[in-house]
Write a structure and sequence with these properties.
Helix content: 25-40%
Strand content: 25-35%
Shape: flat
Structural class: alpha+beta
Radius of gyration: 28 Å
Largest sheet: 8 strands, antiparallel
Number of helices: 6
Number of strands: 8
């Protein structure tokens, strides 16, 4: 009985060696790459030169960059995002569009996904009570689209907030947010 037990491992080992010789597949070990650290220390992102404004989120201006410091308690909570015109050239929109006019409003939520913060649009056009079986279908058929994705730049010193760079979000035209019509885009010569 013992002789049989000793033969089994040697037969398996011999068969595995034959497979390697026939197929001639040699797998070289992959070199381990040093993972780049995208998330920096708070003091390296929000420097001593930062000008900070408190509100729902802290808004930091560091040189020409703007950062939101979003408390983690505000993640995954519904928020209303309203786009309004702050200044307007004369006769834009035929005189019917004024500074302060609301162009767009959306229900949004800030979500964390790995090393990113996603700004997603929520819709409540179709709803169902969670206790009903149809709620699964409603949830799957109303997936919240991502309007913008931000890299996490840093965490607050006490790790209760996430810092993201929002400079490009506010300095570029994000069509899903701005709400400018095709006519207004043409009038003010925005690239479509």
């Amino acid at each position: 009985m013992l002789a049989v037990l000793f033969l089994i491992p040697t037969v398996q080992h011999a068969q595995s060696k034959r497979k390697n010789k026939k197929n001639k597949i040699v797998v070289a070990p992959t070199p381990k790459k040093k993972k780049e650290e995208k998330i920096k220390d708070y003091k390296d992102v929000i420097t001593k030169d930062a000008i900070t404004d408190d509100g729902l989120f802290k808004v930091h201006r560091v040189g020409t960059k703007y950062y939101f410091e979003i408390p983690m308690k505000h993640l995954d909570k519904d928020m209303l995002l309203v786009s309004r015109i702050s200044k307007i050239p004369a006769n834009l929109g035929g005189g019917y569009v004024n500074a302060g006019s609301k162009l767009n409003q959306r229900m949004v939520v800030w979500e964390r996904f790995q090393d990113k913060i996603l700004l997603k649009e929520k819709s409540y056009s179709a709803v169902a009570n969670d206790s009903l079986p149809i709620s699964i279908s409603v949830r799957l058929n109303n997936y919240a689209p991502t309007l913008y994705a931000f890299d996490i730049a840093a965490f607050s010193t006490d790790s209760t907030a996430i810092v993201i760079d929002v400079t490009s979000f506010y300095t570029t035209d994000v069509k899903a947010i701005s709400g400018l019509s095709a006519g207004l885009r043409k009038n003010i010569k925005l690239k479509v």
